[in-house]
Structure formats: structure tokens, C-alpha cells
């Protein structure tokens, strides 16, 4: 059996030395670095939105009610006319297996003709369900009115529902679905990527410190003068003239790792749901808080006044209201926190609900005790 070799350090002294070593090691650990491609994007390399109007057919009697949605019949007549079918004027078409829909898609950057993209199909009439339907050929246009894709295919609707005798059961949404790879790109969006020997990086979040660190990292790797910061969001970068060299340069530049500046302290409050989210930089200065709920109860009871026997009076109905006010006692609680864990512990010590925290955080911000930006959404 082997025994540990004695180092000559007593137990308490050894423990203190170990704690000091761990503390120095923790301070020496660098901040987690991130790639430039995770912090910024190249100007012009962006997604474009497409939209189109079409028809979904093959529904099981759950399509549009043509009386309330005349545009469905009008669209169907126009489509049949283009296919060589002439519908006599005045024909009363009551089709329940057709629905007018809006088709949306996102054209990815640098997409080329022939590639396929996913589309989302949403009912715009009073159709009860698009389940089992087929989208007919639908042109997809951009903001400039030009055709960039064509969509067609069978819808994938994850919802399901049934109705009978006035009862209805439905799971998820039935009036929207997707067609994976349901659109074909017909036109590419022209992108001038470094044609003049320059590209522009755009930070996802404006930060002058992060912009400076990116410029320093690029200039250190590729030489001084390669990158220059225009402001807290845009960085201008010189690139090689040849396309293959430019692609290799951008691939290496995007992989450079830097330590981004710490995000500003921020507390996000959702007033509709009562959610409170704060980042690690949020701190609380020393302050005292007393919190108590105020409850007001108003109850109303009807009071009937009956006239005496053989009198000429009549019965009168009145209301009597009772107002009761209750206030819970709240003692002063000292709150202070220099880290996120201490802030959470201090706020939990108050014993307030998430709804109460909305008012407490706003009051702390007004008093100057909350060292963070308070954003209410």
C-alpha cells in the first residue's frame, strides 16, 4: 500500500495554501473567447423575405366558405382561365375543398437558382383546416416585386381536430402548415462581395470595445491597416482582389477568436407574464425595502324592503356595499448584492412574488440602488 508523501505543511496551513492556489487559478482563467463570425456579419450577406398568394386544394370540406370569401372563387376562376377552362359567368360555385392562403419564405444569402427552400402556408380566409391540402404553383416575390421563387407541394400540418354535434376537439393550429423544400429558387440576389477590395463587418450588438478588439485581432493577424473601425458597429476590412483568395481570407478572419467586452448590466421585465430576467453584470447597492400587499375587497348584497300589511306601499330593492381594506405587514429588509447569485438571494429574502418584483425593481431603479438598465417589454 502506498501512502502520500508528506510535504511538511500542516493540515490547516495546507488547506489555506490550497484555497489560495485555487483562487489564483480562478483569476488566471481567461474569459471564454468567441469567433468573429459569432459576433458580427458581413454587410450584404443577409436573408431576404419572400411572399406570395396562392390556393390550397384537396381539403376534406374544411376550405373557405365562398359566400364570405369571394376572393377565393375569383382566384380559382382566374387560374382555371389560364389553364384553358372557361367558367360561365354567374356560375354559383360552392367549393369547400379550396382555401386562399398566403405563402411566405426566407431566401437565404447567396442562394442560387435551382436550390430549394422551406415555405410556410397560412390561411387568409375562413377555412377550418388546411390538413391534407396541396398548394398549387405559387410565385414568390420580393420587396422589389421581382419573382425569386416558385412554391408548390403537399402541406405538413402538425395539428389535428374533429367536430360533431356541436362539440369540437382541436390540438395545435390547423390553419397554418409548412412544406419542407417546397419552393425552388428562380433568381439569385446579386451581392457585391469585396468587388472594390473592401468589405464591411457589422456587429450584432453595438459595442465600441468589441469593435476595437476585432480590429486589433485582424490587424495583428493580417497586418496593420487591414481593418479599421468606422463606429461602434461597422468595421471596414481590406480583402484580396481574387475571389478564391478572398474566400480563404474571410474564412480565416471569421475563425479568429477574441474576448468580447462584457455586456452592460440589464434587467428585462415582462409586464404581461411577470417574467424577470437579469444578466450576470446586474448588481444591487445596499438599500432597505419594506414590502406589503394591499388588498381591497368590495362586496355587494341585495336588500329587499317590504311594505307593511294592508298598506299602499310597494316592495323596493336596494343594494348594500361593504368595503374592507387589508394590508400585510412588511418589515424593512436589507438588500445588497455584488454578483448575480447575491442579487437573486437578496430578492428572494424579500419574499415577493414575480408580480411584486415588477414594482420593487422599478422602485429600486428610481432610488439608484439597481445598477442595471431596466427594460420593460
Task: For this entry, give a set of tags.
disordered N terminus, four-stranded antiparallel sheet, six-stranded antiparallel beta barrel, flagellum, cilium, 3 domains, 7 helices, structural molecule activity
Give structural notes.
With 377 residues, the protein is an alpha+beta fold. It has 3 domains: 48-185, no CATH class; 192-258; 266-303 and 317-376, no CATH class. The chain is 23% helix and 36% strand. It is built from 7 helices and 22 strands. The chain has helices spanning 11-28, 36-39, 70-82, 208-222, 243-254, 340-350, 354-367, and strands at 34-35, 40-42, 48-57, 98-107, 116-123, 134-141, 147-154, 160-164, 167-171, 176-185, 198-203, 227-229, 234-238, 257-258, 266-270, 275-278, 283-289, 294-305, 316-327, 333-337, 370-371, 373-376. It has a 6-stranded antiparallel β-barrel. Strand 15 (266-270) and strand 16 (275-278) form a beta hairpin. The longest helix has 18 residues, at 11-28. Mean pLDDT is 79; it is low at 1-31.
Amino acid at each position: 500500500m502506498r501512502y502520500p508523501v508528506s510535504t511538511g505543511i500542516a493540515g490547516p496551513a495546507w488547506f489555506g495554501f490550497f484555497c489560495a492556489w485555487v483562487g489564483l487559478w480562478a483569476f488566471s482563467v481567461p474569459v471564454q473567447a468567441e469567433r468573429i463570425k459569432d459576433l458580427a456579419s458581413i454587410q450584404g450577406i443577409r436573408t431576404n423575405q419572400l411572399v406570395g398568394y396562392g390556393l390550397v386544394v384537396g381539403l376534406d370540406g374544411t376550405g373557405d366558405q365562398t359566400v364570405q370569401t369571394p376572393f377565393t372563387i375569383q382566384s380559382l376562376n382566374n387560374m382555371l382561365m389560364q389553364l384553358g377552362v372557361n367558367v360561365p359567368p354567374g356560375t354559383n360555385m360552392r367549393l369547400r375543398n379550396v382555401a386562399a392562403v398566403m405563402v411566405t419564405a426566407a431566401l437565404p444569402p447567396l442562394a442560387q437558382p435551382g436550390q430549394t427552400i422551406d415555405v410556410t402556408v397560412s390561411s387568409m380566409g375562413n377555412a377550418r383546416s388546411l390538413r391534407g391540402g396541396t398548394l398549387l404553383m405559387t410565385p414568390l416575390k420580393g420587396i422589389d416585386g421581382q419573382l425569386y421563387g416558385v412554391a408548390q407541394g403537399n402541406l405538413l400540418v402538425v395539428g389535428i381536430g374533429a367536430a360533431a354535434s356541436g362539440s369540437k376537439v382541436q390540438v395545435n393550429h390547423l390553419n397554418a402548415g409548412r412544406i419542407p423544400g417546397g419552393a425552388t429558387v428562380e433568381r439569385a440576389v446579386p451581392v457585391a462581395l469585396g468587388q472594390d477590395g473592401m468589405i464591411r463587418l457589422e456587429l450584432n450588438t453595438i459595442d465600441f470595445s468589441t469593435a476595437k478588439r476585432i480590429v486589433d485581432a485582424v490587424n495583428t493577424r493580417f497586418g496593420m491597416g487591414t481593418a479599421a473601425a468606422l463606429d461602434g458597429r461597422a468595421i471596414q476590412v481590406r480583402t484580396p482582389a481574387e475571389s478564391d483568395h478572398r474566400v480563404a481570407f474571410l474564412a480565416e478572419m471569421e475563425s479568429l477568436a477574441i474576448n468580447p467586452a462584457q455586456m452592460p448590466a440589464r434587467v428585462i421585465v415582462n409586464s404581461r407574464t411577470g417574467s424577470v430576467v437579469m444578466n450576470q453584470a446586474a448588481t444591487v447597492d445596499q438599500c432597505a425595502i419594506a414590502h406589503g400587499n394591499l388588498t381591497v375587497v368590495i362586496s355587494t348584497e341585495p336588500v329587499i324592503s317590504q311594505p307593511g300589511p294592508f298598506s299602499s306601499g310597494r316592495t323596493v330593492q336596494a343594494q348594500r356595499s361593504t368595503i374592507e381594506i387589508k394590508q400585510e405587514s412588511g418589515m424593512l429588509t436589507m438588500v445588497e448584492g455584488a454578483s448575480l447569485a447575491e442579487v437573486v438571494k437578496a430578492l428572494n429574502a424579500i419574499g415577493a412574488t414575480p408580480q411584486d418584483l415588477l414594482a420593487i425593481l422599478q422602485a429600486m431603479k428610481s432610488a439608484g440602488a439597481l445598477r442595471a438598465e431596466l427594460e420593460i417589454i
